[in-house]
Amino acid sequence: MSKFVKAAITALVALSMWACVDNANSNKPANTTVNSNANATAAKPAPALDNLIAQEKAANEAYTKGDGQFFQNMLSDKFMMNGMGKPGNKADTVKMISEVKCDVKSINVDEGKLAKIDDDTYAVVYKTTGEGTCTYQGKKESLKPMRAATVWTRNGEKWQPIWHGESPIVEMKKPEGPDANKVGANKAPAAPAAKPEDKKAPEKPAASNTAASANSNSNSAAPAGDATVAALAAVEKAGWEAWKARDAKKLEELTDKDVSFVGLFGDYSVGQAEVVKGWTAEQCDIKSVNISDTSGGSISPTVGVLFFKGSADGTCGSMKIKPVWGSNFYKKEGDTWKLIFGIESPAM
């Protein structure tokens, strides 16, 4: 249900969007309020999108200055990241940022969207563009357009980032001829989106939330993380199988009605109808699917995250399906886990 790429060496650009900040003002009500019943207790206020975006911008600026202390103060102690199968926590993130050297003229954050996961957990999705370069571990990269996402969690009276990830924005040219209508951006909640052979992901941090190894959990995983990961992996695999069969009904059963998803090429779909349509519209010939390198755990009793590598043997249109790294957030409804937010990036 999602995919990710290269975050280790390329972490520089992805990190430039690890907008992670805690703030005293981010607990202000958003423009829209959470539904509430007249006879029930007052609903918890949602974070204000403008406040979170302002913090994302500040974090981007801090990143270009290699200001690790900024992130030390702002990130949740349970912050997690994953890059190329390697799990990371808050300390890893702060260390990495402190070692990045940038020469940046400008960084822009726009197209901000707020996606609710539950009353205490929200995802902020936005686009970043910039002019300049960043160097990490001797490798210099130019800033490129990215679709970034940060998951914020309520901590008392403030909001703090608990996870961040990115996917490169790739403008796909529509082919001519018989396959003109066969180029899709993202697939099922587990579908490894097809990627043209000649369209390689930008040489940069395609996603800071790359899948982690199966036997290593980040700080955010609860002691019962293994059980949660196993449960989420089972749902994820079912999603890939449903994508393989183009079973829209099954995909609807596995996703929340308010699901949103960042696809392989940096596209962002909102709402169950739009997301499922994107996963099932393309004509694909798939022999088998597989989920591996799983990790993650519980964020709360009713919210969990799964990091994984997804792959499939087959083609979509004339394109061979490539492996992907995915980071998917699930919400528990009774005894059932449903996908509520996800992001993917190519695994190179």
Strand content: 35-45%
Uncertain spans, ≥5 residues at pLDDT below 50?
1-40, 175-224
CATH architecture title: Roll
Give the terminus-to-terminus CA distance. Answer: 17 Å
The Cα radius of gyration reads: 19 Å
What portion of residues is helical? 10-25%
Query: What's the oligomerization state?
Result: single chain
CATH class: Alpha Beta
Overall mean pLDDT stands at 78
* Number of helices in the DSSP assignment: 7
- Tell me about the biggest sheet? 7 strands, mixed
General form: globular
Order of helices and strands: HHHEEHEEEEEHHEEHEEEEE
CATH topology: Nuclear Transport Factor 2, Chain: A
Number of domains: 1
Class derived from helix and strand content: alpha+beta
Number of strands: 14
What does this structure look like?
There is one protein chain. The protein is α+β, with helices and mostly antiparallel strands. Helix 3 packs antiparallel against helix 4 (90-98) and helix 5 (225-245) packs antiparallel against helix 6. Helices cover 21% and strands 38% of the residues. The strands form 3 sheets. Strands 8, 9, 10, 11, 12, 13 and 14 form a 7-stranded mixed sheet that branches. Strands 3, 4, 5, 6 and 7 form a 5-stranded antiparallel sheet that branches. A two-stranded antiparallel ribbon has the order 1-2. The chain has one domain: Roll (Nuclear Transport Factor 2, Chain: A).
